[in-house]
Structure formats: structure tokens, C-alpha cells
Amino acid sequence: MGRDQKMSRLLKSDWALLATMSVVIGSAVIWEMNNIQIIDGPAVSAMIQYSVWWSVPWLYLAFATSAIRSLFPGSFSPLLMRYRRFFGLCFSVGMTWQLTFIVWLVFGFTDYYINEVYLLSDVIIQIPGYIFLIAMTFTSLYPVRRRMNPKHWILLHKVGIYFLWQTVWSTYWYELYYYDDIQKIDYIYYWAGFFVWVFRLVAWALKKQLTLIGKGFLFFSILFNSLAVIFASVWAQSAMDFFVLNPVLVVFELAVPFLPIFATALSVYLIVRWQAKEIRMSSDVIN
């Protein structure tokens, strides 16, 4: 009975926090919309971007929480884990506002949307993203989660959060290296998104019991590939042209922002495999 009462209190506190944050986000969005005054296609498009600004930090927090717990165990990490579901639901609230403005733009200012905004690649990414978001939101509710196979729940949320992360992060890559309307917050969210991914990668690698040499290789591998992210302006346009102008490779255009990510992941994976082989060989020699 005591455990049920404790769970009930936790659920109530979660919903109270979510309701409070929903009011904060909604008030900020409505305030910004009132400040715009003239509602036209560009204004609604700007509100889509503004609502995302309120969503992204919550996604990054939810994405990085388990890695932070692994890398920095302590009293603060369990608190983050305790509120990971809350972070995800706050992200859903912000994205609900974004979806509202997207629908408004598509059906209220159709000509502007088709002529100025519409991109097939965006639609291809956004629709699966919203499917994942809706599925993850509903399965975050305890009554629904209890009815799911735990393996299926873990798979959905792990694949889903990676998909949502890559959707958001690649959006800011395009903002910085493909479009002209660059704002300071684009840099902030681009770099924050990269580092939360690095946290997860490093946390995974360090669980494999790397030796000091392996950790050194890990550090330099991430540092080297981070330079490719830092100086993306040097290679981004050339890479985009290479894929876009080649009829055979154009299908891989969406992978361009992730070239340094793929290189980093591959190098870290090879380091971990090499270390595992070295440890096995050392163990065989000792035995």
C-alpha cells in the first residue's frame, strides 16, 4: 500500500509540473504571436520556428540523461533520471504547438507553403518523426506502458529518440550550412545537439572497460571528428553538390549532415572492438 501511495504522489507531481510547464510554453508562444500582430504566411512560418525553440532543450535533456548518469554518477544524475519522462512530455507539448502552426500554414496559407516552404525531404523526415513522437508520448503513460512488452517499449523509445534527435540536429545543420537566415540560437542548438550525442557515444564506449591507451584513442578520435563538425562550412557545400548533382547518389543527400557522425561512430566502434580483442589476447597469454 505504501508503494502505491508513493507512486500516486509521484504521478501527481509529474502532472503538476507538466501542467505548469505547458502553461509557461503556451503563454510564451501566444505572447510571441500577439507581438507579431500581422498574421500571414511568413509570420506563421516564424511561429513554427519559435515553438521549436521551446521544444529542443527538452529533447536534448531526455536524450542525454542516461549518458550523464553513466559519466557523472552522483546525487544529481538520479534526479535527472527521475524526470526523464517529464522532459519528453515537455518536448511533446512544444511540438504540439509546432504541429498546430504547420497545419495552419498548410491549410491557411497554402500558396505560400507550396511556393516558399515546401520541401519533399522535410515531409519525408517530419511525418515519421511525428509518428514516433505520438507513439512515444502515449506509451510514456504508465497505464499504456504496463500493457506493453518491456522489450518492445525499450525498442520504440530508443529508436524513437535517436530518430527525433537526428531530425532536430540535421535541421539546424541545414540552417547553418544550407540556408541564409542564420540566427545565434541555431549555433547553440546545433552544438548542444552534437555534444549530447557525444555524451551517449562516450558513455557507451567507457562501459566496455577501455584501457588507458584505448581511452586515448577514443579522445583523439572524437576530437578529430569534432573538427569536421566545427569546420563543416569548409566541406558542407561541396558534399551537398556532390550528392545532389549525381543522379545515382542523390538519394543519399539526407545523409550529408551525418558524415562526421558516421565517421565518429565507426571509429569508436573499431576502437572498442580492437580493445576487446587485445584484452582477450592478454587473458589468453596469462592463462
Describe it.
With 287 residues, the protein is mostly helical. The protein folds into 2 domains: 2-181, no CATH class; 208-287. It has 12 helices and no strands. The radius of gyration is 22 Å and the shape is globular.
Average pLDDT confidence is: 84
**How big a fraction of the residues is strand?**
under 5%
Overall body shape: globular
Major β-sheet annotation: none
Would you report the number of β strands?
Answer: 0
Compute the number of structural domains. 2
Distance between the termini: 53 Å
Count of individual helical segments: 12
Radius of gyration: 22 Å
Structural class: mainly alpha
Helix content: over 70%
Point out poorly predicted stretches: none
What is the chain-wise order of helices and strands? HHHHHHHHHHHH
Which labels suit this protein?
287 residues, 2 domains, mainly alpha, 84% helix, globular, 12 helices
Task: Summarize the topology.
Layout: H1 2-36, H2 41-71, H3 76-82, H4 84-108, H5 110-117, H6 120-139, H7 142-146, H8 150-177, H9 184-206, H10 212-230, H11 232-244, H12 259-286
Task: Summarize the entry for a quick read.
With 287 residues, this protein is mainly alpha-helical. It is 84% helix and 0% strand. Helix 10 runs antiparallel to helix 12.
